[in-house]
């Protein structure tokens, strides 16, 4: 029987799961959780639950969590571009949908809903079932929006023009600034007092940056001051080995997304990162601490929007 009073958060990444925790706190409502069976997603769920996130029933899954989706009227969806979401939305047609952040793809997704761009993940040539089902899924979402039952819950600035176009569809936009996460305790693993923070990137794994150029960037950032290097969840082990051998660099595997690892810090942090969603989210998470997030670019890096 559908649980009309309890939303279901369908999430595939740590950032999406943090968004679900923020939504629950903002609405004072418990949410059930369907999380992809990936190590960092599971570790994030455990850490958020320990910090008091309003999560109800929790289940890990591979593929599409059909049974949980059928039993909930309201879905909190982490990846609106997902082929699996498209299929589930087209077939089950939930009564209400809230879209959570999937990194910088939040902006592209808003444009896809309003017709400003194709309903496809940026930089990906889609084919097969995912491409064929896209129009039906988009139709299902727009019908829900016309009924006032679609919301975008986001930490990313969409701008007045996008918000206006979404309103024309009937969709609402709700901004958050990680208010709940900022009020939680910090992780014991993290930078020492004398260390700057370097955020790892998946750009080498994605073929956007040469391995040698990437390691050279880390070396430059570590000059003159000890550095705590927080790996990206998709970094290859060989890249981490190169980084670990750099003088003055300490690789710290927290098993958590950087937003969760650094939230609750009591001192200003000096953070270096390549362009990613973390540059946006960490400025919000660390607001009021005096921390500085410095973005760098590497020659030959793609301008393609990145999801984390």
Describe it for me?
The protein has 308 residues and is α/β, with parallel strands linked by helices. It folds into two domains: 8-182, 3-Layer(aba) Sandwich (Rossmann fold); 196-296, Rossmann fold, CATH 3.40.50. The chain is built from twelve helices and twelve strands. The strands form two sheets. Strands 3-2-1-4-5-6-7 form a seven-stranded parallel sheet, sandwiched between helices. A five-stranded parallel sheet has the order 10-9-8-11-12, sandwiched between helices. It is globular, with a radius of gyration of 19 Å. The two termini are 34 Å apart. Residues 300-308 have low confidence and may be disordered.
Please give the domain count: 2
Low-confidence stretches: 300-308
User: Which fold name corresponds to the CATH topology of the largest domain?
Assistant: Rossmann fold
SSE ordering: EHEHEHEHEHHEHEHEHEHEHEHE
- The CATH architecture assignment of the largest domain turns out to be 3-Layer(aba) Sandwich
**What is the mean pLDDT?**
91
The total count of strands amounts to: 12
Compute the separation of the termini in Å: 34 Å
Question: Can you count the helices?
Answer: 12
| Structural class determined from secondary elements | alpha/beta
Oligomer: single chain
CATH class of the largest domain: Alpha Beta
| Main sheet specs | 7 strands, parallel
Shape assignment: globular
Give the helix proportion (percent range).
25-40%
Strand content: 15-25%
Q: How does the SSE layout of this entry go?
A:
Blueprint: E1 8-11, H1 14-27, E2 31-36, H2 39-50, E3 55-61, H3 66-70, E4 74-77, H4 83-92, E5 96-99, H5 105-114, H6 128-146, E6 150-154, H7 159-169, E7 172-175, H8 179-182, E8 196-199, H9 211-221, E9 227-230, H10 237-244, E10 249-251, H11 258-262, E11 270-274, H12 277-285, E12 292-296
Helix pairs in contact: 1-2, 4-6, 5-7
């Amino acid at each position: 029987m559908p649980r009309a009073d309890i939303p279901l958060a369908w999430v595939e990444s740590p950032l999406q799961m943090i968004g679900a925790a923020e939504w629950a706190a903002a609405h004072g409502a418990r949410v059930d959780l369907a999380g992809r069976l990936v190590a960092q997603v599971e570790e994030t769920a455990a850490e958020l639950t320990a910090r008091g996130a309003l999560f109800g029933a929790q289940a890990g899954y591979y593929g599409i969590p059909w049974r949980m989706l059928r039993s909930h009227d309201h879905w909190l969806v982490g990846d609106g571009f997902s082929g699996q979401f498209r299929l589930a939305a087209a077939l089950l047609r939930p009564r209400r949908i809230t879209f959570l952040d999937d990194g910088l793809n939040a902006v592209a997704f808003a444009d896809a809903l309003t017709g400003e761009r194709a309903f496809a993940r940026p930089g990906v040539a889609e084919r097969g079932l995912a491409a064929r089902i896209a129009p039906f899924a988009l139709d299902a979402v727009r019908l829900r929006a016309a009924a006032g039952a679609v919301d975008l819950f986001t930490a990313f600035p969409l701008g007045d023009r996008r918000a206006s176009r979404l309103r024309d569809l009937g969709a609402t936009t709700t901004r958050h600034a990680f208010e709940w996460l900022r009020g939680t305790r910090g992780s014991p693993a993290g930078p020492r007092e004398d260390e700057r923070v370097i955020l790892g990137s998946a750009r080498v794994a994605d073929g956007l940056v040469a391995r040698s150029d990437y390691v050279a960037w880390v070396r430059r950032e570590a000059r003159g001051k000890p550095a705590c290097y927080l790996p990206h969840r998709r970094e290859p082990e060989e890249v981490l080995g190169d980084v670990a051998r750099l003088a003055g660099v300490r690789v710290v595997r927290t098993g958590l997304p950087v937003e969760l690892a650094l939230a609750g810090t009591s001192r200003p942090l000096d953070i270096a990162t390549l362009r990613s969603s973390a540059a946006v989210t960490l400025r919000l998470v660390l607001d009021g601490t005096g921390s500085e997030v410095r973005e760098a670019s590497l020659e030959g890096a793609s301008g393609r929007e990145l999801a984390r």
